[in-house]
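Consider this record:
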Amino acid sequence: MQKLEVVARLLPQIESGAKCSTIRWRETPIRPGPMIYVCQEAPERTLVVEVTRVTRMPLRAAAAFVGRKDEWPDPVMLAGMREHYPDIGLDDVVEVIEHLPPSQQAGCGTRSRD
């Protein structure tokens, strides 16, 4: 099964359904279907989710795509992503991975499904 590592502080948000997307750069490609999140700090902690869509776009478009443009203006988005990917720039193409919460309930976060 496909896997992505995630920091421990995000696991409760994923489990509750508050976080239903992740933005990745230059990592193993992810496709729709089952995926396991593995906690970086404690690999025995995992969550299985169903990836519904993977969309490639420039980093500068990702915050608006996931409905968080007001929270993540470009400088904030860039600083946050550089914590994980020091060489990333706003024009670099990222993958926005969207998934259902572990409970498989539809409807997640604030992103419109239009």
